[in-house]
Batch of 2 targets.
Target 1
Amino acid sequence: MKNKPNQPPTTAEVAAYFQGNEATNYQARMIHECGQNVKTYPFERVVTNPHLLACHHRFCPDCQRMRGQNWASALRSAINSEFTHTSKSDPRLFPNWMAITLAGVPCAPLDLRKQLETLLEQLSIAGAQGFWRNNVRTTLRLLQLDVNQTKNGRPRVTPVFTFFMGVSRNLINLQTQGQLIQRIKRDWVQPADPDNWADVQSCVIPTATIRDRNSLQSKISRIIETCCPSADNQTFLYIVEQLRGVKTVAVYGTQRNLFLPSRISQADDLRYEREYSVARIAEDLSESHSGRRGFEFLSW
Ligand SMILES: [Zn+2]
């Protein structure tokens, strides 16, 4: 498999991960046929409903590019509307946005799930604290996975969370004074082996100009699109298994409705997979969204 860390994998590359293995081969077909009206899974047919053309597989590059663009434009709309409602005469009252990056510890692919559970639990403990609750209005949380090799060639996966946050002026001041990073480090997990400590970073995100917002929008879109790492086949399939049910995009805070989660959430991808592709062909979108389907067929 080609290793292009800065490029999202192509549809053919992702499909290839699932190919050749009886248990996952159908996913390769789904991804290959994304956007086409001729489908072979679960049986050969021609799709006429435009909603069914996309495969909605959570690792399909085309579907994830679309999702990344939707989230990024939703965040941009949220920022635009803040500016519309803020006095333009006083820059101190401008909306304040920050990014925080928290990396986990490199681990074997099969230990990823355990680590993610620990990190997410830690995040929820930190998020419940008054300090963060009072100073953060909205958070868009993105998860990326970095895959590297150890010296002896064994793959190591590092989960990296990036938070884009609408914050109080107080938090911006702490950041400017260099004090915020201590607080973040205190609230994040403490690694048993500090040499393995990957990274904690925080920065203010400029949003005042169109150019700033263009840049933020494309960055977010890109992170979502490239969540899925390049790796060898076995590592990739292990990661897919470990990520089962884990959201790579999440939103918190009092303004979470700004992001229209029902239209763009990752849960849609999971539901789509279950409803349309695993168990039966439900060409009738509204009927299938009625909730009569069970979850027992979730196969990834
Ligand atoms: Zn797709």
Note: DSSP finds twelve helices and seven strands in the chain.
Target 2
Amino acid sequence: MRKSPPAKRNKALATLAVIGDEIAEAARYWFSTLKPRKPPPLSEFMTDHARSDDGARIRPFPFQSDMADAFTDPQTEQVSCRKSSRIGYSTILQCFVAWRIRWSPARTLFYQPTIDDAEKFSRDDLDPVLQWDIVRQVAEFKPRHPDNQIRAKRYKGGWIQIKGANSPKEFRRVTADDVLLEECDGYPWATKEEGDPARLAFKRNLTSPRRFSAAGSTPKVKGFSRIDALFEQGSQEYRYVPCPHCGHMQYLVFGDGTGAGIRWEPKKNPTRVWYQCQQGCEIDEAEKAWMDENGEWRAHNPAAFPRHRSFHIWAAYSQHPGAAWGEIVREFLEVRHDPNLLRTWVNQVLGEAWQEKGEAPEWQRLYDRREKAMALGTVPSWPCILIGSIDVQRGAGARLELDVWAFGSDRKRALVDHIEVDGAVANQETWKQLDRHLAREWPTQDGRRFRLARAAIDSGDGTNTMSVYAWARRHPGFAMAIKGRHAVGVGQAIAGPTWQDLTIAGRKIKKGVRLWTVGTSMLKLELYGALNLEKPVDGDPYPDGYVFLPDGTSDEWIKQLVAEQLVQKNLRNGRSRAEWEQTRPRNEALDNAIYARAVSIALGVDGWGEKKWRAAAGIERKRRKIPPPDEQSELTDVETATVGTKAKAAQSKKPPRRANPFTSRRR
Ligand SMILES: [Zn+2]
């Protein structure tokens, strides 16, 4: 950035001044237009040029000013904002776009959670900005012009593209200077082939010499929140404000009614709401503007400052009437007894990730609400894919347990079948029986037939691992050997695969089979959250993520599905760690449910659009043979995912050497 103009120009101005006032005035104006001006910091630009939807001026609140300036500070490469709603973050982004166009054209890439969100953002948030006076002075965005498409805008020296994080295609073939993530905790989880969407997005500007990255989101689940992780990496700035009575600097918290925080009385229908200072003073809401005015951001991780600035901000600081302390309390009292609503409130109002308790849902409630219209052994009527999951039991009562799950759009899932294959794991006949079940077709109520797209098998138990590997090796591209781990990474449910050596009949085979690692904790929390969703009444639609259990599901199976809970274990160093604890002797249904879900994530089903679901549901009628046993294949795209296995083919003696149908079908 250039600094103030050179001194000799000032000298010239001074000389001219003696010639005459009028000429001097003209000359001063002339020079002022020539003078290379320094771009203003974003907060100043906001004050001068930002307009709300009705054309009114927007004055940034003090807490917003510093956040905004981080976007245009040349020393700052990255900004992460963990936030509640109603704090004006999108206004900052809007102003940043206008500032770019006016002062510093660049290739700017936005990522919204979905392509639909991207279009909505473009229409509602971006298009109005492009009509601000300050933008129109330098760029014209004509309606229906090729340079002004919904998700791609071009102007002199730069462009803006808005993408959806729900499609892998959105991360390809584009290089940008700015990468701006919106609501990144709402992105789909990482798939095995594509990786984490947030990480992929940030790769888009790695080669830019002037790269700038930013992410803003309300956080979702503790331990799996991307914005939480980004906040931790950054400077971790909190807004400290002075108490108007004692001057003590502190950042605002909701509190638990004992120490500092928002307080109210009476407890049920409060008529008085105030903020309790850390030193005990009672602060009236009318002081809020003054407090912010005299506040400052303080970094808890100054090592990252100013390179990566991260901010935590929540509704209590906002001066919008909808975020008044009394309003925050009123909403809390409404939702406090409903875990689902409370969770949303914690995310949206406090701007904090929800600490999932991991309490096991009640099995009786799930048993009583089984779907009368669905029967065990039948595929749901909605478009879906089937994924099998196999648990290996040894010792007395040795058997394989196969659960078949259907996955559909909006993260809904249904149990389709539960099959037990008795027999010792060491016995080949046990595995042949399993193959016969896996090769089956499952009917829908209207007579269509479905086969399994994939089958996951738990290889975790060391004793059986070689048998499991050997079986998985015979079904490349169809069977996925899986090992569970508490967690594999932020926002990631399944990782790998890694090559594993195996021994068959005394012969060691190097890198003979692939092994996927599944982050079980995250998926258990997701399942329990889904099981806690209320079943709709009076024909209302089922909520997203609903788990359908058909009529005929046994009580034993349901008990197994909820057989663990998350407990806090105290460690010696005074900290505590969350651990899953088994509350019943058997938990195979839970493990199987988690592994099937992990496979669905690996296939990327969370990002599928309607068209892809229909294609997936239509393709299963075609039959294809299982690939030759000695070929290993990658997981490929959807179409290959909906083909089943044929046990007979797997046993054929000398398979012809040919391309694997699971991979070669790609065109
Ligand atoms: Zn005080």
Note: Confidence is low (pLDDT under 50) at residues 1-17, 619-667.
